[in-house]
Amino acid sequence: MTPQTAILPAASSHALFLLLRRRLGRRIDGQLAKYIAGFHSQLMEFNKSQPDTPVLAAIGIGAECWAELFGRERPAELRAFPHIAGAIHPAPITNADLIVHLRGEQADLLHDVASDFLDAVRDWLEPVEVTAAFRRREGRDLTGFVDGTENPEDDERATVALVSEQDPDWAAGSYLHIQRYVHRMESWNKLPVLQQEAIIGRTKHSDEELPDDDRPRTAHISRVVIEDENGEELALLRQSLPYGTPGGDRGLYFASYCHTPRHFEKMLTRMVAPTDDGRVDHLLNFSRAVTGAAFFVPSIEKLTSLAKTDQPA
Residue limits of the Dyp-type peroxidase N-terminal domain (predicted)? Predict the structure, then answer.
């Protein structure tokens, strides 16, 4: 089985996130399913004209509309974005059925692919939002700190991101969670660097984690680096990027791929709700989530199979 192309490669310079929902009264029918089934083949043809700067893509499908594409056959842990009981900070749930994650080195190519996709599906799906994101120098978030330092590397990326023998029918698929965060940049930029570092849990310029004794339990690093009962780290493969316009909303488009939704759910709980240590993530005093959605990103073969079968009733 072959994973969709946007999941595993290292960070791209640009990304587009198309968050979509079914139009009122519309179901996903055979015509739309066949278009989705052929999307990666069309993208391969498109990329032949720009072989040095290919567009990478992943299509994810939400739990609410899953049966309209695949019927009763479904990944073992497919479920909606979690509702976190006792949350102090917002973790909103967005009504979205499909996501298209595009990334690459040329923003104009992403624009063209996204425009063609939206034109093709307009009778069935409408955009909830379309967000263009970009990689900043040295991979830094708009807060000034390097993002994604905990990402797995090399072969570990596939081990973390892709379903394998635990659910063989859906091998090479991945559970994708997204959240769009809006940063309070004016308030953040007024903080002394030492206070920013205590909130993040790393130094700003040398990008070193603060020693355990000096790092607050409310630091962002302390909340998002999660472990199981045996002390093993529960990793995610992040493909997050900054987004925004000067003078407008600016923040981080968080996107994580994993072989299980449980890692993200545990991380989010530790960020927004007091758990065993009674703390939450103090970065959320300066960065607010405004969207949240969960999807499963099937293998290319599973998507392609939609063109060969009758639509579920």
Answer: 38-134
Q: Which residue has the tokens 């709980």?
A: 269
Q: Which SS3 state, helix, strand or coil, does residue 289 take?
A: strand
Domains of the chain, residue spans: 14-307
Element (H, E) at 139: none
Is residue 79 within 8 Å of residue 30, measured between CB atoms?
no
Q: 219-223 long-range contacts, Cβ below 8 Å, gap at least 24?
A: 219/281, 219/282, 219/283, 220/281, 220/282, 220/283, 222/279, 223/267, 223/270, 223/271, 223/279, 223/280, 223/281
Of 176, 156, 147, 185, whose CA–CA distance to 4 is shortest?
Answer: 176
Stated pTM of the model: 0.95
**Mean pLDDT in consecutive groups of 10 residues from the start of the chain, 313 residues:** 97 97 94 96 95 97 96 96 92 97 98 98 97 94 88 95 95 98 96 96 89 89 85 91 94 98 96 88 96 98 86 51
147 is catalytic: yes
Choose the catalytic residue: 112, 147, 214, 310: 147
